[in-house]
Design brief:
643 residues, Maltose phosphorylase, domain 3, seven-stranded antiparallel beta sheet, 16% strand, globular
């Protein structure tokens, strides 16, 4: 960029701040905020035997099963090249809601998922797939000659209309096309993962060319008000993508574009702590807030951080089910409606939880504490882990909270729902949040069997556990030499009277203000740390109601197996993403005592695998188990209560 052009652009930014408050003044002189916690590379963390490792392996199998040429089908068409394989069905190529298919929408997620899964497993076949797709995308982008890189039908024509000021938006369409800016965002995120996580150099110029195409050919031709109108339609975390490219290149234009892509309808009221979420499409909003936080990191504009933190608190407190998921039927609703909404077939959407975990990771890096880690644990152990079928490893769309309902899952080649998009990523990044690093040392955030190896720190930290069947968690810390190291281990609020034994000696350890035990000492070369985390049954009422109650044990939500009545022939669906066959609530047993008395009625009948029975009339033949273990049958997470 030439000097005169840069000056003109900075003047435009300044003028926008003066007249409309659209952009932060800090964009003129960005003040980056440095993270207090960072995450280890996925290649530094290896999962050990557990349900999480099983899920990771299923996810890898699916990535290797997919045909890259089918996912590239529409990209080659839009580049004027002959496709090499037929497109997949479902949202990839079939009409949905009259908005047409989400053409090519899966490929950006495929790029990021393959990149993360290669890091997490080291499987070289994944790297070959990644490199092949990048080579094909490079051919498509070069054939187009202008930086465009999408599978949207007539995408250039669509965005030319937008750039001319013809912008008709709703959610989920722009000028009749389904979420086109969302598709740009996902391709940019996929290319970013390939470059930043797997070192694929050619991904960066491809990402820059696509971002420049959108910036110069569309954004620069629109007023701020027109951009805000464009943002009415679901656009993922497009602001995050432009911040990321700014961080990778140092080119200020990307940060300026990112500022214009911050949706005022969300960040302004949420920066003031207002819960205005009722009626909004949940997963359209969640990714924006990761972008707001990233923009704060790049500029120091604390209004955007406040928006992200307030949003996280509000969703957690006012809009979240016991499994950690939020909303129902894809939309936020007021607290007073939980009693009504618990009876609906469409419960929390899986991709909402995936994106809330991304937001939690981002906020935790700025302010690490046990509250965020506990939320992450609740979502990961109970919504994400339960959302995948144990046979094919396919992800469900909705997890109904209706007592006596069930789940259906995506088919491998004929669904490609949004929850299949994000569901592709989750198995690849299961190791991300288990550990983090800060200035004082290492944090253990989650209790998942795994091994962390850091050549930089000259250490290996192995974690062994068999929860929920056992309350024992063992760590083995091996160092190259005896030295001082600070190890912080989250003190979980579900553990009753925990015991900590270090190298054979039981110790009373202080908990810091962030809710972590602080083990700050000079360590031997080989160390053994044993945690006893006693777990007991407890209950949580439905938000805002005493008429429904959920059962929990340690970090796990428990559910009851309620049989096979009126279930579908197949649990894997194509276009239909909802389980439709209800049974009457009269077939679900009811607690006839105060919720505080229920834990004493729950008795262990088997420890491996763990399951319970409830000693009350009507519950005699119902097995109670961790929710993530129940598939292909009806279940109850929430139970009716009458006094």
């Amino acid at each position: 960029m030439g000097d005169s052009r840069c000056v003109k652009r900075l003047f435009t930014v300044f003028l926008g701040w003066i007249v409309g408050g659209t952009l932060a003044f800090s964009q003129l002189l960005p003040t980056p905020i440095y993270q207090k916690a960072t995450y280890f590379s996925l290649e530094d963390v290896r999962l050990l035997e557990s349900p999480f490792l099983d899920l990771q392996q299923k996810g890898k199998e699916y990535l290797l099963w997919l045909n890259p040429d089918s996912l590239l089908h529409f990209y080659r068409i839009e580049a004027g090249l002959q496709p090499k394989a037929r497109a997949y069905a479902g949202w990839e190529s079939q009409d949905v809601w009259g908005a047409g298919p989400l053409r090519g929408g899966f490929l950006g997620f495929y790029l990021s998922s393959v990149s993360m899964m290669y890091q997490a497993t080291g499987d070289k076949e994944l790297l070959k797939r990644l490199q092949y797709v990048l080579n094909e995308l490079e051919l498509c982008q070069k054939a187009g000659k202008d930086g465009f890189l999408l599978g949207i039908k007539d995408g250039r024509k669509l965005f030319s209309e937008v750039a001319s000021g013809k912008i008709k938006t709703n959610n989920p369409t722009v000028n009749g096309a389904w979420a086109p800016v969302y598709l740009i965002n996902k391709m940019l995120l996929g290319l970013s993962a390939a470059y930043a996580q797997c070192g694929q150099e050619k991904a960066l110029p491809m990402m820059i060319r696509l971002a420049d195409w959108f910036g110069y050919q569309v954004l620069d031709k629109l007023t701020d008000e027109q951009v805000q109108r464009l943002l009415v339609c679901e656009h993922g975390s497009i602001n995050e993508s432009f911040v990321e490219i700014y961080k990778l290149t140092g080119e200020i234009r990307f940060l300026e574009w990112a500022g214009r892509l911050n949706d005022r309808a969300m960040w302004v009221p949420l920066s003031e702590g207002k819960d205005i979420l009722f009626g909004w499409h949940a997963n359209t909003q969640i990714p924006k807030f990761t972008g707001f936080e990233k923009y704060y990191e790049a500029t120091g504009d604390k209004r955007l951080l406040n928006a992200a933190m307030n949003f996280w608190d509000i969703v957690n407190q006012n809009h979240t089910w016991v499994i950690g998921g939020n909303s129902t039927g894809e939309h936020f609703f007021p607290k007073k409606e939980f009693e009504e909404r618990v009876l609906l077939k469409g419960g929390p959407e899986t991709c909402n939880s995936v994106n809330m975990l991304r937001l939690t990771e981002t906020l935790f890096s700025y302010q690490p504490d046990a509250k965020k880690a506990a939320y992450y644990e609740r979502v990961l152990f109970n919504h994400i882990l339960s959302a995948y079928d144990p046979v094919k490893g396919m992800c469900c769309y909705f997890t109904s909270m209706r007592p006596g309902h069930y789940r259906i899952y995506a088919s491998r080649d004929s669904s490609f729902w949004c929850c299949g998009h994000t569901g592709l990523e989750s198995p690849a990044k299961l190791g991300k949040f288990i550990y983090s690093r800060d200035k004082g040392g290492i944090r253990v955030n989650l209790f998942i069997p795994s091994v962390l190896t850091s050549k930089e720190l000259g250490m290996e930290l192995a974690q062994y556990s068999h929860m929920p069947e056992s309350d024992k968690v063992e760590f083995r810390l091996n160092l190259q030499d005896e030295r001082t190291l600070t190890l912080r281990i989250r003190r979980p609020d579900w553990a009753k009277n925990p015991i900590l034994v270090i190298n054979g000696k039981e110790e009373a350890i202080d908990t810091d203000t962030s809710g972590y035990w602080v083990l700050d000492r000079k360590w031997k070369k080989k160390n053994r740390i044993i945690l006893k985390l006693p777990m007991e049954p407890y209950t949580e009422n439905l938000v805002g109601s005493d008429k429904y109650v959920a059962l929990l044990y340690g970090p796990y939500v428990l559910a009851g197996r309620l049989g096979m009545e009126k279930l579908p022939v197949s649990f894997w669906s194509t276009m239909n993403n909802m389980a439709n066959n209800e049974i009457g609530l009269e077939k679900v047993p009811t607690f006839t005592c105060p919720s505080g008395a229920i834990p004493s009625l729950l008795k262990v009948v088997k420890t491996n695998p763990l399951h319970f029975r409830i000693q009350m009339k009507g519950f005699e033949n119902i097995d109670i188990e961790p929710f993530y273990k129940i598939h292909f049958e009806r279940y109850a997470v929430y139970w009716p209560v009458t006094l």
